[in-house]
Amino acid sequence: MLESLEADRAFVAQKDAEILDLEAQIYALEQSISTLLAAKEPAQARLDAYKYPILTLPNEIISEIFLHFLPAYPDPPPLTGILSPLLLGYICRPWRRIAQATPPLWRVIDLTRTEMRGSQMKLGIPLIDHWLRSSGGCPISIHATDYEDSAPIISALIPYLSRGEHLKLTAKNASQLSVIEAPMPLLRTLHLSLSESVSVPHILPNFPLLRKVVLEDHAVRSISLPWPQLTSLTLQDAGFDSCLTVLQQTRNLVHCTLRGWIQSAPHTEAVLPSLETLVIERGSDGMMEVLSSFKTPALRCLELPEVFIRPVWSLDARRIKMLNDFIAGCGTKFEELRVTQASFAASEYLAAFPSVPVLTVDRL
Fold this sequence. Notes:
Elements: H1 2-49, H2 53-56, H3 59-68, H4 93-100, E1 108-110, H5 119-134, E2 140-144, H6 151-157, E3 164-171, H7 174-177, E4 189-194, E5 202-203, E6 212-217, H8 219-222, E7 223-224, E8 232-236, H9 240-247, E9 255-259, E10 270-271, E11 277-282, H10 287-291, E12 294-295, E13 301-305, H11 317-329, E14 336-342, H12 346-352, E15 358-363
Parallel strand pairs: 1-2, 2-3, 3-4, 4-6, 5-7, 6-8, 8-9, 9-11, 10-12, 11-13, 13-14, 14-15
């Protein structure tokens, strides 16, 4: 019994000695830590007093820098990704607050570059709503194209169309087209593509500021706009009869682009007294006959591809005469003929059109 007690006393004494040794080490470490903290303190104080230059700028300046991060209005940034304004909110909390408090940062929304389909489309609708609500009361530019089913996108845009200044839209059918029958008092440019034709043209009269229009596919035949107020018009992939019906009403047109196939020969004239620039990008073989139906006394510049002047392997004398006659009918204001997709040398065109003041040949 005495031997057992003696052994326990020895064990306890040993552990007390170990504890005292550890406490001495801890005390020494605490002293070292205190010394290090004291040495660190002046440097930390200097760091705490330092302000990063970007964080010293007023919020208004940072907001202006953010706006220069974007493409020039009304061109769109991507909805998501490294060049999206959403990225600015990921840098730090102060920048997120500044971005959200800068309505012009959100005044352009591009829905053409996203891959929202099916369930992803539903997830994207709250983002669209948040984006456009953040634009405050700014006029907005909307690009919504290239969707197989654009109905959810169009529905999400409806509450904001009254602020639309620039609208590029692909609609699938007449029910989706009816969205833009609502008044858009700020609308200046409209780019519309319609996948299906409608039996009765939709009348869209509520655009007092509308000046520039691009119509693709069935849209040319399916809508009626305030044509007399337009100054710029592009018609794509439409028959001549449909184009002519529109052009006969656009007497204030200054710039016109025709892009697509002509399905019939002209029977009546299109008088465009204010037209200064006419661009024909592609069309049927009978385009020179179509051109003769235009009366453009103020025309300054005509652009067309070489294929309309040479049907096979040489410049066509008959077509050259028709084009010279057309240019002569434009009067003294005519300044430039541009031939695109050309294979012949400029010298051949200079010989064919000696009366043209400026002849530009863009070779293949």
